[in-house]
Design goal:
alpha+beta, Aminopeptidase, 2 domains, four-stranded mixed β-sheet, three-stranded antiparallel β-sheet, acyltransferase activity, transferring groups other than amino-acyl groups, GNAT_dom, BQ5605_C005g03256 protein
Length: 241
């Protein structure tokens, strides 16, 4: 969960009226980022990243330079139908707002981790598989109140894949390594719950390959700019043995 905490100025990037392309940290904090969050640091740009040892890929925080690609991706007719929350159509101003919000979340998470000396991360705070109302509110409140590292915390993830990368096994390989080599050992994560639209076999296939088990289906009311219809979602859960 992203929690806004007052942190020392040295623990956060210097604020700027113009969002910098990359999230960077001063050299003095590089050892702490590596020790606490097990992140690597780009020696030239000071951007933290998570290397994937089995692939020639890295996972980075948000970048301002991603904006044009994200506009194109979320308006792609093979991607947009499987989205729930982004506005439709997805305009450059929507991406700018999203990236700014994401940057604040990233700064808060890393700042909290540096302050507490232990890794923190954004947790499940939507529980869309539960009908909107008191039960969903209670699930969110409970999940966000648990201390970092609690084995009963429920995590989730969401991912998008460029159409040209579909069918190459990227998501299965990346998510497996992210889970097994970082989320479990560093965050002590034990439970992941995800949902995928019932007509999205690609997402379902990825999670089944990763050992997730189906837990049922639920109805989800789409936003008005996505026709406001009811759609079925399949729910999946993974627990560390």
């Amino acid at each position: 969960m992203a929690v806004s905490l007052p942190v020392a100025c040295s623990s956060t990037p210097t604020p700027s009226s113009v969002l910098s392309d990359k999230l960077t940290y001063p050299t003095s904090l590089h050892p702490s980022l590596s020790w606490i969050l097990k992140l690597s640091i780009n020696s030239k740009t000071s951007e933290p990243y998570l290397p994937l040892s089995q692939h020639e890929l890295i996972l980075t925080p948000s970048r301002q330079s991603d904006v044009p690609h994200r506009v194109k991706l979320l308006n792609d007719p093979t991607v947009s139908p499987f989205m729930y929350s982004p506005p439709n159509p997805y305009l450059p101003r929507h991406v700018e707002e999203y990236v700014r919000g994401l940057r604040k979340t990233e700064e808060a998470i890393i700042g909290q981790s540096l302050k507490e000396g232990k890794a923190s991360v954004y947790r499940e705070d939507s529980f869309l598989e539960i009908v909107e109302g008191p039960e969903r509110d209670a699930a969110i409140s409970k999940n966000l109140s648990l201390p970092t590292g609690d084995p009963t915390i429920i995590y989730t993830w969401y991912f998008l894949l460029s159409p040209e990368c579909i069918g190459k096994g990227y998501m299965t390989l990346v998510l497996k390594e992210l889970r097994d080599e970082w989320l479990v050992p560093v965050l002590r994560m034990r439970v992941i719950e995800v949902q995928a639209f019932s007509d999205n076999p690609g997402s379902e296939g990825v999670h089944l390959k990763l050992g997730f088990k189906g837990t049922g289906e639920t109805e989800l009311r789409m936003p008005e700019d996505r026709e406001g219809m009811l759609r079925m979602e399949k729910c999946f859960r993974w627990e560390k043995a």
